[in-house]
Specification:
alpha/beta, TIM Barrel, 265 residues, 16% strand
Length: 265
C-alpha cells in the first residue's frame, strides 16, 4: 500500500479524468492521497473533491505563490473553513502553506505574515501542516519553532542534512519525489539515501515535479512506486521495507490518512 502525500487534482478538471488518474494509481497499489489547497477560493471544491475521491484526505491553506492573489480577509475565510470542517475525518491539516525564496518579485514580508498566521491556525486547531519550502528552510524552521504545530511534512525537501535534523526534531517528515530520480541531483539523492528511514515520506506533487522517465510531462500518482524503487535502490533496502515504513511515516505526519476511504463514490 502506497500513500501519495502530495497530489494536486485540479478541482476544475473533468470528472472522468479524475477517475482515470485515480484508477491508474490504484492499479499500482497507490491508494491514499493528500489533496492540498492553494487558495481560499478553492476550499469548497477541494472538500467536495476529496469526498468523492477514493482514499483521499485534504488540507486547507493558502500557498505562498498565491499570497499575492489573496486578500487579508482570506485568512479569516481559512479559519472559518477549518472551524466548519474540524469534525471531518478527511481534514488532514493546514496546507499547502510555507515560503518561497526562489520566485522573483514576491512580497517576502507578506508571505511570512500569511505563513505565520496559518501556523497559528494549525496550532489552534491541533492540525498538522503541509509546507512548501523552497530556498526558505531556515525561515520555515523559525516559524515552526515559534508556533510548534503538532506534526507535518516539508514538501519537496532539498535542504542540508543539518536543516533536515532540525525539521525532524520539530516533528516534521521530509517529502521526496520525482526530483531525486535524476542522476544529476547528487545532493538530493544523498539525502534520500542517508537520512533516517523514519524521516521520509514519498510524493508525486502531481501534475508537477515529474520523474526522469517522463521529464517535462504531466506527473501523476501512478509513478510513485517507480519513484520508490529508485529510493530503495539508493538506500540498498528492499522495496517492501521502504513501503511499510513510509506508510507509517505518512500516518504519523498526517493521522487522518489512517481513516481514508478506499472506494469510488
Amino acid at each position: 500500500m502506497w500513500t501519495d502525500t502530495h497530489l494536486h487534482l485540479d478541482t476544475h478538471e473533468y470528472d472522468h479524468d479524475r477517475v482515470e488518474v485515480v484508477s491508474r494509481a490504484l492499479n499500482k497499489h497507490v491508494n491514499r492521497f493528500v489533496l492540498p489547497a492553494v487558495h481560499a477560493n478553492h476550499f469548497n471544491a477541494l472538500v467536495a473533491l476529496a469526498h468523492r475521491t477514493p482514499g483521499a484526505v485534504y488540507c486547507l491553506g493558502i500557498h505562498p505563490l498565491l499570497v499575492h492573489q489573496s486578500e487579508d480577509y482570506h485568512l479569516e475565510v481559512l479559519r472559518d473553513a477549518l472551524q466548519q470542517h474540524r469534525g471531518d475525518p478527511l481534514l488532514a491539516g493546514v496546507g499547502e502553506i510555507g515560503l518561497d525564496g526562489f520566485v522573483p518579485g514576491l512580497d517576502w514580508n507578506r508571505q511570512v505574515a500569511f505563513f505565520h498566521a496559518q501556523l497559528k491556525m494549525a496550532r489552534d486547531f491541533d492540525l498538522p501542516v503541509v509546507m512548501h519550502v523552497r530556498k526558505a528552510q531556515d525561515p520555515i524552521l523559525k516559524g515552526l519553532r515559534m508556533f510548534k504545530p503538532k506534526s507535518g511534512i516539508a514538501h519537496a525537501f532539498n535542504g542540508s542534512f543539518q536543516q533536515a535534523e532540525h525539521f525532524l526534531n520539530l516533528h516534521m517528515k521530509l517529502g521526496f519525489g520525482g526530483a531525486c530520480t535524476f542522476t544529476r541531483a547528487l545532493q538530493l539523492r544523498r539525502l534520500a539515501a542517508e537520512l533516517p528511514l523514519e524521516a521520509l515520506v514519498l510524493e508525486t506533487d502531481g501534475p508537477d515535479i515529474p520523474p526522469e522517465w517522463i521529464n517535462k510531462q504531466r506527473n501523476e500518482p501512478a509513478h510513485l512506486p517507480q519513484i520508490a524503487e529508485v529510493i530503495a535502490t539508493l538506500r540498498n533496502i528492499p522495496l517492501q521495507t521502504l513501503a511499510q515504513q513510509v506508510a507509517l511515516n505518512s500516518e504519523s505526519a498526517l493521522p487522518a490518512l489512517r481513516a481514508a476511504k478506499n472506494s469510488f463514490q
